[in-house]
Each structure stands twice: as C-alpha cells, then as structure tokens.
Amino acid sequence: MENPYLNNFRNFFTRKRLRLFLLSLALLLSGFALYLDISVRMQFEGKRWAMPARVYARPVELYSGMKLRPEQLAMELAMLDYRAVDDPQTPGSYRRQGDEFTIITRPFTFWDESQASLPLQADFNGVRLSALTNRATGKPVTLARLDPVLIGGIYPAHNEDRVLVKFDEIPPHLIKGLIAIEDRQFYTHHGFSARGTARALVSILSGGGVQGGSTLTQQLVKNFFLTPERTLRRKFTEVMMSMLLELHYSKDEILEAYANEIYVGQDSNRAIHGFGLASHFYFDRPLSRLDLPQAALLVGLVKGPSHYDPRRQSARALARRNLVLQEMRKMDFITQAQYIAARSTPLGVVEKAPEGTSLYPAFVELVHRQLRRDYREEDLRSEGLQIFTTLDPLVQTSAERALTVRLSQLERDRRIPPRTLEGAVVVSHSQNGEVQALVGGRNTRFEGFNRALDATRPIGSLIKPVIYLTALERPDSYTLATLLDDSPLVWRERGTSDWEPQNYDKEFHGKVPLRVALANSYNVSTARLGLALGVRQVMENAHRLGVERDLNFYASSLLGADSLSPLEVTQMYQAFASGGFRVPLRAIREVLMSDGQPLQRYPLSVEQVIEPGPAYLVTHALQMVVQEGTADALKRYLSPDLRLAGKTGTTNDLRDSWFAGYTGDRLAVVWVGRDDNQPINITGAGGAMTVWGEMMARLDPDPLTPPMPENIEMIQVDSVTGLRADGGCQGSVELPFIRGSGPTEAAPCAAHAPARSLKSWFERLFE
Hints:
37% of the residues lie in helices and 17% in strands. By secondary structure, it is α+β, with helices and mostly antiparallel strands.
C-alpha cells in the first residue's frame, strides 16, 4: 500500500524538477538568442566585407604628337578589352581603319579627376599620333586618358573578390527572378520556411542529413555568418539568426546584402562574389545595364556556379536560365512576350572574362612589397584601396616575349636541355625611376619565386663602372685616356690565398687606355685600378649609388664576387642613366580609398650623388662598350646612331650572364642563368645582352644624348699614348675631359710635338 504522503512528496519534486528544467532551458535559449542577436547586429552593422586592393597599370595618355605606333594603340585597346565593332557607340568599343581609330572611351575616376566617356578620333602618321579629335564637337583634344588596365589585386582570405552595389542599382528583373526561383514567400515569411525546416528535420532524423528548404534570408545567414558545417545544431542556429535578421532589418537591406555576398563563379584562384562583380565577369558591363535574360542567367547561377558555368557548360546554363524565366512567367513577373523573347536570346556571355587575377604577378609582388612599407597587410586586403602603378603593359609584353623567346633559342643553339635556363628582366624609366616592367622568370604567370627581386647572384663585371667612376672622380689622377697596367698581377693579403686575376681571353695587354680597359672588360687592369683606389672606397661608392645590401671588401669584390638581385643592379645603374642622380625605383604613383578619395601620392625623389662631369664620363665610357667593346654585337638589334650605353657581365665558370644598359628613355637589366647555379657556358654578351637587344628593338628607344656639363671639354688625343693629338695623328680620338684634366703634352704624331717641331725646323732649314 502506497503512502499518500510519499506520493505527494514525489509529485512535488517531479513538478518542481520539471519547472526547473524548463526554466533553465528558457534561460539557456534566451542567453543563446541574446548572444546571436549581438553577433548578428555587430557583424551586419559594421564593415560587412573585406574588399581587395585593385592594382592598375599606368593609363595611356593620348595627345597629338606623342610617340606611339598604331599597332601599340591596338594592343593597348585589346588589353583593355575594348570591343572592335563597325560602328562604335558604347563605352569600351572602337573601330580601326588603317591608321585611323574611332574610340569611345570608358568613364573612369583617376586620382586627380573623373573623366567622362569621350568619343575620340585618333589619326597616325608613322610612329606618331598626328591628330586627336573629339568626334562629338569636332574640336582638337589636348589630352585624353584611356582607363588603365587592371593588372591584379591583393585579395582577402580565400581570395574573395566583389564589387559592392546598392539596392537601387540591382535590376528589378534580377530581384524578381530570385524570388521566383529561390524564395516565393520572401516578402511574407519571417526569415525561415516552416515547411522547408520541417522537411530538413525529417531528413536529419531519418539519417539523410541536413538539406534544402532555405529562404533567401537563410542562404544569406549561411554564407555571411556561418561555416559550411551541416549539422542539426547549425541548422537551429541558422533559423534563429534568420529570424533575428528579419527582426532588425528590412527586406530591401537583406536583399542588398544577399546580392553582394552570394558566390557566383570562379576565376582561377579568385572567387567571384556578388552580382556586381558577376555582371562584369560574365557580361563585361555594370549590373544596372543587364537585360532580362542576362539577369535571369545570374539568378540561375546561384544554385551551382560551377555546374552551370556558362562558358564551359553552356547547354546547362541555358536550360537553367530558361527555367528561371519560366518561373518568373508563372509568377506574372514578366509578360508572355517578354518570356518568349528572352528564351530565344543567346547567353551573351563575353568569351574572355575581364582579368582579375594578376597578369603580371612578379610586378604585383613588387607593388605589394613597396605598399607594405606604408600600410598594414590587413588594410591592403580589406579596405578596397585603388593602387595606380607605373607598369607599362606594352613594355612588359616586350620584355616577356624577348626573355621567353631568347631563352628557348639559346637552349636550341647551345644544346642545353629544354626549360633549363631561367632569367629575369627589370625595365625602368631612365630619368624618373618608374619601374615599367618586371619579369620574374620565363613562366611569366607563375606566382612563385621572383628572380627579379629574390635571385641574388654574383654580378661579375657589372661592378666595373663603379670602379671607373671612383677613378674618374679624381680628374687629377685619372681620365678616359689614362694608361692602365694590364700585366700579370698577384695580390697577397694576410690570411688569404694569393689572388691572380685573369682576363677572359687569358692574355695580358700591357698599357691600355682606361676607356679601352672598360670597353673590353679587362679584369687585370681593372683589378689593379680598384686596388689602387681602395676596395672600401669602391664599395662605398656602390652604396652611394643605391646598393643597400652589405658588400665585402675583398679584392675579388672588384670583379663582382658580391651578389645582388636584378632589381638591386637596376637601382645601382639608375644613377648612371639619370646623369648622376640617385632616383629610388618606384612602382606606385598613387593610392586612392575605395570611394575614390586620394590617400597617398608617391612623388619623384631625387638626390645628386655623382657630379655631372664624372657621370658624363662614365656614360661616355659605357657608350664605347657598345660601340667597340664587349657589347658591340648590339648593332644586330639596334642602330649605332642610338649611341646606347651598357655593360656585359659574366661570372666564374660562366654561371651567370648579365647585361645592364640604357637608352635615352629606358634602363634595363637582364639576368640569365640556372636556378641550381650550374654553369650555362654563356657570356653576358651571348645571353643576357641578346634578350636586352631584342626587347629594346621592340620599343623604339630614344637615342642617348646626355647634355654635356659646362666643365667638360672635348680634346683630340692619340689613341695609343693618350697624349694630345691633332689632325695629323692617325687613329686619334676625341674624348671628353673634365676641364683642366686633359693631356697637355703633345703626342709624337702631333704637329706641335717637341721632337716633331725640331724635325720640322731642320726640314725647313734645308729646303
């Protein structure tokens, strides 16, 4: 028999425990809901997306008289994805008839102004733009800029890329399509579909996992707040967050966020998010200009961007688009006539997607490194900065082609196993230091080891101009005509082995003029000169020219035993090319905020580090290297009238082939070698110089005619003795001297030479 008191006691505690349990559960749910509510509002009201930095090449500035060939303009338009049409009317289109172009430019916001679309007529006369006219007004145009080529981006995690749009920029057809195919109850539910959620629960309980039944709000929550995890707990969180989102925000705000968040395609390693970027990616036009079938296609891609990829799976994409149109018709969102017309429309996807991943990864890497000096990495990957760089796509293309073609040719000619040779190229403007091209290897699209920046190799004879500069800065002791000793040399230094430099031809040349020693790259006379000047003094001069890396003070350093990267060599030679000014190499011109507001400019920085006289003499000596020295084979590629300056470089055992040279408008440095540092058996003249010559031949370089400083005078000297000569001396040369440093003694061949004058007096006496 049961005790009634005991039963009452049990019932009391059972009810109490149940109430406690329910109360605890309610508190737990309330706390969880509060946590989710705070999370939703914090993330949704703050900065919603990390926006990548966009990196642009320099814009082409068109003006009458500019040096530009029609083929180069056509190439620039092709890189900008301008469409060649018979009757250009829309921005981004053009027509070419011979040497005449009709161009409708795209509007673009530059760092200094916003330029509207312009209808231009560009006429050419040979290698110059002869006239630039506004076709609408018929008036000449002083200056017009094409929008710059987008050359890459600095992306957030997972390489997400997007172009943000506002709700009023989304075409109504696109919104109606979304509602018709994805969520017909969007404007009436409170964030989730009870039927869809129940279906999902049944699937879970039956072991089928979580599936289907998501509203647009739930899709946004899944993509924006949650991970791809597919569990009951995550489904519950998704429903809770969807309800909270609907509680705090309007339907239009939710749709706007959805349109910017949704994943709709893949471009190599770049993820295409949002309809704003998808519109450019698939149709090369702004979202606001999409028509009905184009909007329906984007809506159709939401279900599976890869499965319905319109470029690779056009039949599937067409069927999916038409299904969207069909659902829109069922909902009376479009008329029967619109439905029929849209169904019969081709997909209209542009064949080639506008590039977003970097075309020039080696150059973008240089930009990224220079930006990191001034910006935090997280800002570069999230603030949507617009980076305007110095890259010239035409120069870059020429450099890439020259390197890849010449390396393959060298391998064939010299029986080197294919794909063994590697190389790097750096091209800068000779006066302002802007880096116009940078190639990090023969695979120009490879985003890996960047040889232009990171391959540090012995530079061989490229160091020699620094030695000769050090000498020519002492005009009382050295001139271009000074005779150097090129006899055998043994250098003994305590604690080291004896050093006996050899010339490349294994010969010694006795007394040789300084300019000849440099032109022929004689090692022995150069080493003897460097030792007389002091190794430390020479290396300190290299630092003065712009080398920041520590250099050794060994005697072998005088013949280029120290290692530098191609970019560092370019910086060193920039001082020679600019006439004695240290101009830091720069790859960035301006940085703008995401809204187009200027953030930072990178102005030209100049410091004179060489007096004009010695700088002029060094350039003259380097011109002789090309005219009659180790680089004289350049005449196979370029006219001697250009008076180019350059220096070949070869390292021990023929492991590295270098060439550094400059024209009137550009400086370029080329390296060729192997990644495993094995000998390639190619000299600087046989390898790197051929790349340099082929590249420059494509670029129509300006002749090198540096202005002569006031303290320079030209004097005729005997090429053998270096003494003052006159018209009677065969083989004499005219050389520049810093005023007062020229030879005063007459050469034996000169009419006023002492011996010859005495002889002439006797000859006149007995005549």
